[in-house]
Amino acid sequence: MLIATDLDGTFLTPNATVSSRNRAAVEAAEAAGIRVIPVTGRAVGGLRVIGPVFHQYALVSNGAVGADMSTGDTLFTETMSTHTVTSYVDQLTAECPGVAFCAEVGDSSVFLVEEGYDEIVPAFESENDPAEHVVVSRDELCSTEAVKLMIVHPTVSASDIYQLSRRLRVPGVHATWAGFTVAEAGPAGVTKASGLERICQLLGEDRANVVAFGDGANDVEMLQWAGVSYAMGGAKPEAIAAADRRAPRCEEDGFAVVVEELLASR
Question: Are 112 and 103 contacting, i.e. CB atoms less than 8 angstroms apart?
């Protein structure tokens, strides 16, 4: 068995910390020989900021970056070409003037941000997903391959930007949304599911033995791909429709509740 879990809204508490019960559930699973892998839309800094909870492998930036937590090494990165970034930025800007972009580059530890982007994103979201922020021009942002783009607007919601982004269907781009202030876009074909599949191939793990937890639109592909999947209480409708089963809310340590049941049934 391999357990794959989203973080925000799934594994973490509403204030973005790790509960003692969820921490204990990870430790018990690992002690039983079960790998527990975080699969998050956060960048690598947003994973590290929660502390040493996961000790093996991790997927960040919605599956575009794989990391070995035991060594700190990057296993793989998937990027959008500069042509794709430019095409997407131009088309979305034409449809929604005033949008500001952030490009996650490299292993996702550096964010190239346009002027005004950081002023729109709430401070707590930046604190939960820390990175080196480098203010760049639009031309500079579009001249670098990106593992993920994040998009904000002073008055248009992330949900509306996400829906607009999906309708645009820019070649080479996969639009998604984690439920926060920013809409997101990554390389086409790259999702939490594709990243998890790469990790499973590396480990020789069959997808039928994967148990996945999630709550957001960016979890849909992973929930559909896993052998058994759980949507958390309060999950987005897309996640609920994609999952096989329901788990209690993150406020109720739903991750731990299910993991404890899985371990008891072995």
Answer: yes
Contact 5, 213 (CB under 8 A): yes
Residue type, 54: F
137-186: per-residue pLDDT in tens?
999 999 999 999 999 999 999 999 999 999 999 999 999 999 899 999 99
CATH no., domain 82-187: 3.30.1240.10
CATH fold of 2-77+191-265:
Rossmann fold (3.40.50)
Compute the distance between CA of residue 189 and CA of residue 26 in angstroms, rounded to an integer: 29
* pLDDT less than 70: residues of the chain: none
Spatial separation of the C-alpha atoms in residues 234 and 248, rounded to whole Å: 8
Cβ contacts of 212 within 8 Å, gap of 6 or more: 3, 4, 5, 39, 196, 219, 222, 223, 225, 226, 228, 229, 230
What number of helices (H) and strands (E) belong to the chain?
11, 14
* 186 membership: H or E segment, kind and range: strand 183-187
Residue type at 40 in one-letter notation: T
DSSP code, position 159: H
Helix (H, G, I), strand (E, B) or coil at 150: strand
Instruction: With beta carbons less than 8 A apart as the criterion, state whether 53 and 7 touch.
Output: no
Q: How far is CA 144 from CA 15, 62, 243, in A?
A: 33, 19, 36
Question: What are the tens digits of pLDDT across the range 184-213?
Answer: 999 999 999 999 999 999 999 999 999 999
Q: Is the separation of the CB atoms in 159 and 177 below 8 Å?
A: yes
pLDDT at 112: 98
For the chain, give every domain's residue range.
2-77+191-265, 82-187
Looking at residue 266, its pLDDT comes to 87
Q: Which of 229, 186, 191 is nearest to 210 (CA)?
A: 229
